[in-house]
Design goal:
Elements lengths: L3 E7 L2 E9 L4 E3 L2 E2 H4 L3 H13 L6 E8 L3 H19 L1 H11 L29
Parallel strand pairs: 3-5
Antiparallel strand pairs: 1-2, 2-5, 3-4
Helix pairs in contact: 2-3, 3-4
């Protein structure tokens, strides 16, 4: 199996995911998964596509992430990994990943701040007199 590559995005985070047959090593920005994502919940998010498709320990995953916060980065990796697994074997993995909702790009972004007010929707306090 040659190297498969996919892109995952969430908020401002962009993850380039490279998957190749291997022993189950996950490397993010040249650091091991446990070193990059210290929180167990974030590691769980990253491993979800492998758990759903029962492919833990079958693929080596190399990820390059830029932008966003740690939660957005973890979810970007999840989307990229799901897309890469679909590229590897569409018939076997796609139904499970689709049912889990891992192939849907979460399009919610931060709304821009508008001029003349303190935030996107927030207005300055109104004074009648």
């Amino acid at each position: 199996m040659e190297q498969v590559h996919a892109l995952g995005r969430r908020k401002a985070a962009v993850a380039r995911v490279y998957v190749v047959a291997g022993k189950g090593n996950i490397t993010i920005n040249d650091r091991p998964l446990e070193d990059y994502f210290k929180e167990e919940a974030l590691r769980y998010i990253v491993n979800q596509p492998l758990a759903v498709t029962a492919t833990e320990g079958q693929f080596d995953v190399k990820v390059t992430i830029a932008g966003g916060g740690i939660k957005g980065q973890a979810e970007a990796v999840r989307l990229g990994l799901s897309r890469a697994l679909c590229e590897i074997d569409k018939e076997a993995y796609r139904p499970a990943l689709k049912a889990a909702g891992f192939l849907t790009r979460d399009a919610r972004e931060v709304e821009r701040k508008k001029p003349g007010q303190p935030g996107a929707r927030r207005r300055f306090q109104f004074s009648k007199r």
